[in-house]
Design a protein that fits this description.
Blueprint: E1 2-10, H1 17-30, E2 33-37, E3 40-44, H2 47-63, E4 68-76, H3 85-93
Helix pairs in contact: 1-2
Amino acid sequence: MIATVSFVPLGVGSSLSTYVAKAVDVIRASGLKHEFHSMGTNLEGDFDQIISVVKACDEALVDMGASRVLIRLSLDDRRDKDSSMEGKKQSVRSKLSQG
């Protein structure tokens, strides 16, 4: 399963990079394959692993002082063939125009 997740802690001011960094640290510590990008983080794992990491990130942000955390989570549960983050990127790259 491939997921993308982003966290928006509320009640902590307008600069969120410290909170985003904490969430990325939690994700890294989980051992799940992941890709951090400017608007969130992609995860690769099974459903229970992904949900467990999302929950751990939420709890970490609350522990840092967020009074509320908005979580945007999108899951791709493809069952007809193996799917990976890299495979999805390769599929698109193979179809890009060369000019």
